[in-house]
Design a protein that fits this description.
Distance between the termini: 148 Å
Protein name: Ig-like domain-containing protein
Strand content: 35-45%
Keywords: Immunoglobulin domain
InterPro entries: Ig-like_dom, Ig-like_dom_sf, Ig-like_fold, Ig_I-set, Ig_sub, Ig_sub2
Helix content: 10-25%
Order of helices and strands: EEEEEEEEHEEEEEEEEEEEHH
Organism: Micrurus paraensis
CATH class of one domain: Mainly Beta
GO biological process, one term: cardiac muscle cell development
């Protein structure tokens, strides 16, 4: 039977169990529902009735349920255990970490019918508690085959959140072409992918989690043709926004200056003065005409 294992981040892990069956079974290993293949990071052997999985270097993202399944024509049998990887502060030695007062919290999170086990190891920072949040989110990147790409973001929260990256729902671990960097003091996070090829295209997600909550953000790695389409759509969106702003912007010359009440009053007085002046002139003319008639 497999036994639960707890290790510090960066350590090697060996999971093993004894299997007795005839005819000799086919052995398969799984992390959650993900089938593990032999690679530079995972070594799988089955010798002398002992099935063994060796993880070259364990990271927090490796935490979870591991299952070994043996199958032959008579049927199948499986055994499971939980691997818990404690996260240490960056650049600190294991001795320094063990000397700290660390709060360990074991939680089981159900997501898409998968039960994950995790130990959150974090030192509380003075101040108000806060669920994780993004200061800077990752952005869409262009895939150049044979090149490299970097996704960057920055997270905050108290206690400082644990972060991990996923692609298509599967956790990404440091090793081979992937390098994950998390500076806990500043919250800066980086996912570096080297020697990229077309299969690397897709959506990458970073998840930040502490005991107060969880937050995630995603960004796509697009092949060149798709990236050009994306850039064109962005340019069109920006152009439409600029045109809309220009059309709705009022023109200063088209706006009539405000007319004050005092101006109306002055105009009215001028008109009344002209009328009085004209009436006075007409009165003089009438009087002169009347006097001349009387004289004759």
């Amino acid at each position: 039977m497999l036994k639960n294992v707890t290790v510090m981040e960066g350590e090697s892990v060996t999971l093993e169990c004894r299997i007795s069956a005839y005819p000799a079974p086919t052995v398969a290993w799984y992390r959650e529902d993900y089938h593990i293949e032999t690679s530079i990071d995972f070594q799988i052997t089955f010798e002398a009735g002992v099935a063994r999985l060796v993880i070259r270097e364990a990271f927090a993202e490796d935490s979870g349920k591991f299952t070994c399944t043996a199958t032959n024509e008579a049927g199948s049998v499986s055994t499971s255990c939980y691997l818990l990887v404690q996260v240490s502060e960056e650049f600190e030695t294991k001795e320094a970490v063990s000397a700290k007062e660390v709060t360990e919290e074991k939680r089981y999170v159900e997501s898409k019918d998968v039960i994950m086990a995790e130990i959150a190891a974090a030192e509380e920072v003075p101040g108000e508690a806060a669920a994780p949040f993004f200061i800077i989110k990752p952005v869409i990147q262009k895939l150049i085959e044979g090149g490299s790409v970097i996704f960057e973001c920055q997270v905050g929260g108290n206690p400082k959140p644990h972060v991990y990256w996923k692609k298509a729902g599967f956790p990404i671990t440091t090793g081979y072409r992937y390098k994950i960097i998390h500076k806990k003091e500043t919250g800066e996070c980086r996912l570096e992918i080297s020697m990229t090829f077309s299969d690397d295209a897709g959506e990458y997600t970073i998840v930040a989690r502490n005991k107060h909550g969880e937050v995630s953000a995603s960004a796509s790695l697009l092949e060149e043709a798709d990236y050009e389409v994306y850039l064109k759509s962005q340019e069109e969106t920006m152009y439409q926004t600029e045109v809309t702003a220009y059309v709705h912007e009022p023109k200063i010359a088209a706006v009539a200056p405000p007319t004050l009440y005092a101006d109306y009053e002055k105009e009215y007085e001028k008109e009344q003065a002209l009328i009085r002046k004209k009436m006075a002139k007409d009165t003089v003319l009438i009087r002169t005409f009347a006097e001349e008639q009387e004289f004759h």
